[in-house]
Each structure stands twice: as structure tokens, then as C-alpha cells.
Amino acid sequence: MEKAVGTKKDVILGNGDTIEVKKLPLGDYAQLMLALKKLPNGVMSELSDIDTENEEQMFQAMFGLFGEAWGQVIEIISIGSGIDKDTLANDPEIGLDGGVELFLAIYEVNNLQKVIGQVKNVMNRPTK
Fold first, then answer.
1. Residue 14 lies in a domain
2. How many distinct structural domains can be found in the chain?
3. What does the alpha-carbon distance between residue 83 and residue 75 come to, in Å, rounded to a whole number?
4. CA–CA distance from 67 to each of 34, 46, 108 (Å)?
């Protein structure tokens, strides 16, 4: 049996505000998947292999993701956290550290690694 993924996770920002990242309803999840689809192929591959238990690998993947696909990352975090894009892009209290924490919370709570893996498997199945 696979480990259960929580339905919410709190992220504390630099200004002390707490953002509650919750498991997304299906409609928002569909928006999130469209934002993920816009990621460059290499980034998507790295994202599907993130091991949140391996801190070094996780940070390497996050720096690549943030560096190569900043606009899409802002959109993903906005959908997953409910924070508007302008605030995410311009609020120094969120910053890169808060952005990474928010992204990882969204990734974990919504079990994106498993979902991305399942989508890849379906896409790689031979057609009859």
C-alpha cells in the first residue's frame, strides 16, 4: 500500500504569514495540469523524478525549474496556493525561498509525482 498524502500543508512566509496549501479540487487540478504541460520537456522530466526526501536533488531540480520556466512556475504556484501572480512575482516577503516551499507543498499535497508518472505511462503505451 502506498503512503497516504496529506490534504493540506502550511507554509510560513518571510513576513510570518501562513499559507495553507490544500489538495486541489478537480477543476483547479485541470488548470494545474495545463500549466505543467507548458513546462519545457527537460524540466518536466526532472520534475517527475524529484525525490522530496533527497534534499540535494530536490534543490537542484528546483533551481533548474525556477531558472528555465519562471512564468510557468508563478502560474503553478498561483493555482496551487491561491496567491495572485503579481503578488508572487513582486512580493519580497515571499521571495525565492517562499516560492520553493510553496511549490514543494503543492507538489507533495497534490501527489504530482505519481500523477505525472501515470500520465507518462499512458502516453507511452503502444496503440493498437
1. no
2. 1
3. 10
4. 20, 13, 21
Q: How much is the pLDDT for 123?
A: 59
> Which ranges of the chain have pLDDT less than 70?
1-5, 48-49, 52, 119-128
What pLDDT is recorded for position 2?
41
Q: Quote the cell numbers at residue 114.
A: 505519481
pLDDT score, position 128: 61
Instruction: Please give the model's pTM, rounded to 2 decimal places.
Output: 0.77
Alpha-carbon distance 33 to 22, whole Å? Answer: 16
Residue 12 lies in a domain: no
Give the cell for residue 109.
499535497
pLDDT at 41: 74
Give a yes or no: residue 51 inside a domain.
yes
Residues 64 and 12 sit within 8 Å (Cβ to Cβ): no
H-assigned helices in 69-125: 70-81, 85-90, 95-109, 112-124
For residue 43, what are the domain limits?
21-124
